[in-house]
C-alpha cells in the first residue's frame, strides 16, 4: 500500500505552515512516523530540502490539501531518522504554540531541536550488497546495525564512520593473543617486531592511542589488516568534562520555613503550580534539589530553568554535585556538538534532570514529575526572535501535559505571577529568612548623587570610594554593578552637537576602547573613532557617558593598586571566559568584580561584603513600562550578593532619583509594598497584569512601502477586532531604522478580546499573500522591551 507523508519543509522565506504531501517509498513505509526528519525534493528544480514529517496517511483523501493528484506527488528521497526526533508531545505543543506565538511552525520545530539536527549536513550512506543503509544522526553504530538486520536479516555490514556529528575515539583490542604470539614478522621489519613486543608486554588492555603513539599508523594498520588487532570505534560524549572536578554534596536538613514549603509541594496533587517567593539566600535552590530527589525516587524526571548567562555555571554545579551524571546541561554557551550530545542523553532517558536556559524547556524528557523555573521574573525567558515564545507558557503547558508539579521561584516575582497567586491560580509559598541564620540581609544605603558628586570622578561618590577603600583594607571583596556595556554611550561634537551614528541604523554608535572603534549594537557595524568632527571639523569631539570599560579605567586611576575583574558581554564572548572570571574572583584573585547585570544574579561569594550600584537610574530611565519593576528586581538581586556568609554585608546605591519608590522600596527590601504600589500604577495606566499589549512591527527597506502596509494592517485590525481592543498607530518605531530597514509599529491593547487570536493569525496569513516579499511583519505578544 502506498503511504503518504505530510511534511513541513525548511525553506527560507517560504512563509507557510502548509504541509506538503509526499509519497513514502516502500522500503521505509513501515518505519516512517511523525516527528522524523526527511529530505524531500522541493520546487520546480526539485532540489533537496530538509523537512519534518507531521502526519502519515494511507490515502490522499485523508489529506488536508486535496490540490494534488496522487500521480503528481514526489517521493521522499531520504529518511534521516530511525526514531522520531520530535515526540508526539512536541508535535502537539507546536500545534498549540503556532496559534499563540504567531510564527511559522518550522521555526518552532527548529527551536525544539538542537541545531545540529537542523543543519543540512551530508549524510553518509553505506552501500553493501547493493542495499543502502540510511545514516541517521540519531543512530549509534549499534542502532545502524540493528536497523540493517531488521531490514535484511543478514550478515555484517561495513560501517563508514561519520564524524561531524559524533565524536569518536578508537578502541583497540587484540582478538586472539595466541595468534599474536606466534606471529613472526620477517627479520627486515624491525618496527613490526618492536610493536609486537610492546603489545605482548602490555597488560592486554593497552589503550589504542598509546599503542599508536608507540608505533606508526601504517604498522598499526598492517597489524589490523592481518587480523592481529582489531580497531573499534566508540563514541565519546563531548560533555563528560562537565562532571569532572565537582565534589559531591548531600542534602541539607531543611529549616522550618523550607520544610513547610517542601511539605506543601510534596503533598499537593500533581499538576499544581507554586509561586515560591523567597528572599535571596533563603534556600530556594535547596528546596528544588530535594523536590527533584523525591521525583527521582518515584522514577520521574525534572526540568530546572535558569536565566541566561551568569546563573547557569554556578547553579549547574550545585545540581551536578547532588545528582552527578543524571544531570544534563542545555544552555546557550554550549558548542553545537555538546548541545547535541546532551540532548541525546536526555532523549535516550539516560539523563533524568535537565538544567538549562530558556530553550531547555523543550528538552525531550519523558515522564516529567516537576518543572522549576528559577528567577521566574527574568526577562530572558521571553525569546526576542521567532518564535517569540515565553518559556513560562511552555512550562505551564508541559506541566499540564505530564501532570507535573510546577514551581516558579523568585525573590521578586513578576507582577503577573504574583497577581495570579493572589487569585489562587498559583499557590503562594513564602520564605522570609535567609537559610543561614548568621547571614543577615545586607544593609542598604542610598547615595543621592545630586549632593555627593566627587570632584575626582563623575561616576563615584565620596561615600562609595571611601567604603571601597575600607573594604580593601579588610581584604574583603566588592561587587560593582553598572548596567551598561561599552566604554561610553556615544561620541559627540561639543561645538556643533554632531553625534556619530550608524549608517544602517538610526542609533548612535558606541565607543569601544579595547578595539578603538565605534560599534553599532544593533547590526555590528564598526568604524574608527574620528579625530575631528565630520560635520564641522572641530577637534572638540569626544565621548560622553560611562560604560564598564570607562569605569574600570577610572577606578584604576582613583585606586591604582586595586585588582579589578570586568565582566560584561565584551569580556565574556569567548567560550569559558565567564567561568574563568568567576573562578578567579572566587579564589580571591581580584578585589573588585565590575560588571553589567550579568553579575546581579545567583553569585554566591562569601567574602563579598560590599555591593556598589554605580547608577541605579540607567534601568529606571528606560522607555519601558516595566522599568520600575526591573529596577526593583535588579537592586534586590544585586543586594543579595553582599554578606552571604557570616560577614556583615553592605550595599550602596548611587542615584539621581533617591525618592523614587522602586529605589526606596528596594532599600527596605520590601517586595510586598513594591507589589502593592506598582499594581496601582499598572491599573491606572492600563498595563499588565490588567491590560495586555501586542506589538506589531512592519519593516521594509523603503519607508513608503512600510507606511502603506502599516496602514493596511491597522485598517484590517480595526475591521476585525471588537471595540474592546485599542489600536494605537501606525507610527515609526523609537529606533526607526536598523539593518537598512525602516520600522513602523502598531500596538493593540486589550483586556479581554475574544477575536484577537483569530485576527492575528489572519494577519500572519495575509503577510504570506502580499506580493512584496521583502516586507517583514513581526507579531510580538506581551513584548519585553516596551
Ligand atoms: P536561594 O536559592 O533562595 O538564593 P540557596 O538555596 O542558594 O538560596 O541558599 C543560600 C545558602 O544557604 C547556600 O549557601 C545554601 O547552601 C545554604 N542553605 C540552604 N538551605 C540550607 C539549610 N537548610 N541548612 C544550611 N544551609 C542551607
Ligand atoms: Zn562638530
Ligand atoms: Zn547598525
From TrEMBL:
EC number: 5.6.2.4
Summary of the function given for this chain in its UniProt record: Initiates the restart of stalled replication forks, which reloads the replicative helicase on sites other than the origin of replication. Recognizes and binds to abandoned replication forks and remodels them to uncover a helicase loading site. Promotes assembly of the primosome at these replication forks.
Co-factor: note: Binds 2 zinc ions per subunit.
Name recorded for this polypeptide: Replication restart protein PriA
Keywords from the UniProt entry: ATP-binding, DNA replication, DNA-binding, Helicase, Hydrolase, Isomerase, Metal-binding, Nucleotide-binding, Primosome, Zinc
Cellular component GO terms held in the UniProt record: primosome complex
Subunit structure, as described in the record: Component of the replication restart primosome.
Gene that this polypeptide is encoded by: priA
Domain of life: Bacteria
Enzyme class: isomerase
Ligand binding (Zn(2+) 1): 493, 496, 533, 536
Record CDD domains: DEXHc_priA, SF2_C_priA
Pfam families according to UniProt: DEAD, Helicase_C, PriA_3primeBD, PriA_C, Zn_ribbon_PriA
GO biological process: DNA recombination; DNA replication initiation; DNA replication, synthesis of primer; double-strand break repair
Similarity comment: Belongs to the helicase family. PriA subfamily.
Co-factor requirement: Zn(2+)
NCBIfam families reported in the protein's UniProt record: priA (TIGR00595), PRK05580.1-3 (NF004066)
GO molecular function annotations of the record: 3'-5' DNA helicase activity; ATP binding; DNA binding; hydrolase activity; zinc ion binding
Binding of Zn(2+) 2, residues: 502, 505, 520, 523
Domain called Helicase ATP-binding: residue spans: 265-431
Domain Helicase C-terminal span(s) in chain numbering: 528-696
HAMAP family per the UniProt record, alphabetical: PriA
